[in-house]
Amino acid sequence: MARGILFHRWIVHTQFILLGMLSFVPQVHSQSQILQNLFFTVEPMDVTVKRGETFTMNCSLNQVDADYFWLKDEQAISFYDPFKTILPSGSLQVTVPAVQQAIDTTSGSYQCQATVNENSIVSRVGNVQIASLTMSGSSQDLYTDVGDTVILQCEVTSHPKPFIRWIKSGTVVDPEQSDAFARFAVLPSGNLEIRDVHESDSGVYRCQAENRMAGISETSPDITLTVNDEGLPPVEELSFIVSPPQNVFVNLGESIVLEVAVDGPATFTWFKKNEELVLQFDNHYSLVGQGNLRIENADELDTGLYRVRASNNLGNVEKEIQVTVRVPPRFVKRPISTYARQGMNAQFECSWYSVPRPTAVTWLVDGDPIPKENAFRIERNGEVGETLRIIGVKQSDSKYYQCIVSNEVGNINAIAQLIVLPPGKLSFIPAKNKVQ
Length: 436
Hints:
The chain is mostly beta strands.
């Protein structure tokens, strides 16, 4: 009997303890007080299109009940725009006018804005360019001496890169198919290099550029080359006639050719940080034409100071070029979703790596710029990060916050949620999400 009474008292005591513990459980069970991971599963990408084409900028959220809107150059796209339609899936369908308009309404930056339960976030930026080609320049008369090196320039602007070929007096210049053009090289820039010039190289040259995506082909004005084999004083000093600018940039993963030429036959040697480069065909570093350096599939290790030396019986000349491999931004630390009690301070940290440093770092709240109020403070952490501080949070600050980082190569964004709990001692904030 006594044992039964003791057991009954133990049950009552245990129930009392459990009830007391339950009284301290946070009241964060409503949908508005539960952290919800909101993110894009598909975002708009950079694209090149041609006139008359219809294309789609894709966008999708990890929530099925999202509403979608689109921005072009940071302005809302009108539902009445005859060339743009928001599809039921949330993607944007765009038709490029077949004929060039006085105002280009297609090219530019596009962003998708998604809204769920009155909370909004925006996607990365997708840039749209229309395929185009423009030939410039005017007729030229060039003079050179036998044995020299000469560069004929093809002045063309094209996106994407065009197919280039040269015509000499009605004959296609093809170094691979004709011994007569074995000393010729069509460089990636489109320029034509002629080494060890012969008198027979005299003639009328034209550059033909074709943008196959745009369906556009143009031919340059005539370039008349005259080769002299006598009557001119010999060159007494070797000098560059073509060289890259002092600072050259290439995007990560792309290839680049550093074009150089001197006014006579020469041997070219390339150095990186005073170490001679091993130049072989199809190697990471290789020679194109007489002495142009090609860097294939550039990576960050290719950033550095390069030096080229041209040598012949007249002596040596050197040129230095600083090459920088541009790297799109990537996050080192993303802002983390968190809870905060009303009246406390909250903060989101965002740090990144990019080359060069970002051209813009933007903070958004529910898809809009952070309000210019004393309660919101953005603190710079050197060149690699920022911290958003919210002083004395209010219930109305329970929203989604974004850190967007951009440079010349790309853009990234990270999303975090803040939930503000009511004040009071019984409010509970999970330790891993607690901020002061």
